[in-house]
Amino acid sequence: MPRRRDSLSEFNLWPAFTDALSGLVMVLIFLITVFVITEVLIGREIMGKDTAIGQLQRIVEHLEGLAGDAEKEAARLRGRAQNLESTVSERDKLLAQLRNQLAGLTADKSKVEQSLGSVQEQAALLSVRAERLAAELERLNRALAANQKDLAQRDAVIVEQKGRIEALDSALKKKLLERVEELEKYASDFFGRLREVFANNADIKVVGDRFVFQSEVLFASGEATLSPSGRGDLDKFAAVYRQLAARLPADLPVIIEVQGHTDRVPVRGRFPSNWELSTARAQEVVNYLIQQGIPPERLAPVGMGEYHPIDPADNPESYRRNRRIELKITSR
Predict the structure, then answer these.
(1) Structure confidence at residue 8 (pLDDT)
(2) What parts of the chain have a pLDDT lower than 50?
(3) In whole angstroms, what is the distance from residue 6 CA to residue 16 CA?
(4) DSSP 8-state secondary structure symbol assigned to residue 267
């Protein structure tokens, strides 16, 4: 063992270390050289890549521009596509309308063809009818020519009859005028005589073409039964009529119209309204005059109610004046 330690101590490490260090330096130099070369290569590569990147950036920018243009074109194309779709939709609607119109025209054509056939049939019938009418017209023309003489004679008869009618009309007017004059004369004589008979009675008087009794002279208030004094006054009236009746032509249509009038005060008692009261009073006077010998065909009762006042004022005196029995000479 001691011998081995001696052999190790006698071994020189420096050359080995120097060799190792030299080798390490060489390695380092090699590595540095490789690194430098690599850096140079990498720098060149980086420069090439920068150039490529610039080119790529320019390409990208160009592509982005193209992409923007493409988007604009795409938007334009989408708008055009929408327009085309709208146009297609309108075209489809128009085609549908045209199909409907074509169907309608086809139906109309069928109807027209049917109508044409019917018109042709009617035209044939009308043609036949026209021939018949032409023949009938010819026959009527012959008959008219044959009757012209008779028509002339008839015209002469018509002229003659027209003259007779005018003469009759003139005579009738003259007769009516004479009757009116007779009626007016009779009424004038009749009322003149009545004016003399009742001259002293202020409640019985002649007013124009009417002979007026105030109701109180003939009836009690609200009643339609003649009072004794009222009967006496009607007796005088009937006597005057009988005196003048002998001069009255039998065919003169004289009518003594007996009108009952009331005031506007609502009636009380057995009569529902002034209509019924005025009518009942007029009928009562007519019945009594018939009993006194005046023919019923010469009399006519009329109820006038409250609707024909001679004094429209609203006071007791006006009411008294409006309550009256009027006898008027008229004709049928």
Answers:
(1) 47
(2) 1-3, 5, 7-9
(3) 19
(4) P
